[in-house]
Amino acid sequence: MTPATRLALLILVLAAAAGSLILWDPRRVLSQGLLAPGVPVVWAGLGFVLVFAIGTLAFFPKPALNIAAGLFFGIPAGLVLAVAGTTLGAVLAFALGRGLGREALRPFLKGKVLAAVDRRLTEQGFRSLLLLRVLPGVPFQAVNFAAAFSGVRLRSFAAATALGVLPGTAAYVVAGASASSPTSPAFLTSVAAMIALAALTLGSLWRSRGVVTVPRAQGVADRY
Q: For a Cys-Cys bond, which of 22, 105, 130, 217 suits 160, CB 3.0-4.6 Å?
């Protein structure tokens, strides 16, 4: 296939994955199927990781799946399974982007900004990706495909993802595990952490807005 055909196929696969959520709901699959009474714990855990990964690839909200992990499996096991599902979903997106879209988008990396991003991810992949995963407000799938289109190694990508999503994932897992006791210290702490993450996200978006608008304003002033 030509690079353009591969890119079109990538877009088609992602659109089909997102559109499939009309037909199925990961939470319903978990509660009524994989996590129903009588299902062995091992199979329930493996099934949860797989559903989590596919749901992430289909752009299903990760916080809802993280809360489900804590609700069904508790804090220790739920955190491990949620991180595993997140990492697997990211690796699937990375593999799709690397195999289908990278060559088609390489010509667009000639610009200074895109070339600098590509060089940074290629030369300092683990460190850069870890920072992008830890920082709130950075779109999860955007990081997946930016890494896939760069030269970062899969091993560095997976390791940075697993470590970087730990703080945010833990907050939601703890919230799900302690939801039955809304006055407990664990639940209140997790809610406080989620509020802090939301505040940091809004703050980062506001700062990025300022960075974008100020140069534009200066450019207009210079013309007059």
A: 130
Q: Which DSSP symbol is given to 111?
A: S
Q: Long-range contacts of range 116-123, CB-CB < 8 Å, 24 or more positions apart?
A: 117/146, 117/150, 118/149, 118/150, 118/151, 121/146, 121/147, 121/150, 121/151, 121/152, 122/150, 122/151, 122/152
Helices (H), the chain: 3-19, 26-29, 41-57, 62-73, 75-96, 102-105, 112-123, 125-134, 140-149, 154-164, 166-177, 185-223
Q: In this structure, how many other beta carbons lie within 10 angstroms of the beta carbon of residue 29? A: 16
| CB atoms near residue 14 (< 10 Å) | 20
Report the range of poorest mean pLDDT among 22-26, 103-107, 159-163. Answer: 103-107
Asked if 172 contacts 190 with a C-beta cutoff of 8 angstroms, the reply is yes
Task: Indicate whether 130 pLDDT > 80.
Answer: yes
Task: Report DSSP letters for 123-138, one per residue.
Answer: HSHHHHHHHHHHSTTS
DSSP assignment of 180-223 equals T-TTSHHHHHHHHHHHHHHHHHHHHHHHHHHHHHHHHHHHHHHH
Distance of CA 157 to the CA centre of its chain: 12
Rounded distance between C-alpha atoms, residue 35 and residue 127, angstroms: 37
What is residue 142's DSSP assignment? H
**Model confidence band, residue 198 (pLDDT cutoffs 50, 70, 90):** low
Q: Strand, coil or helix: what is 64?
A: helix
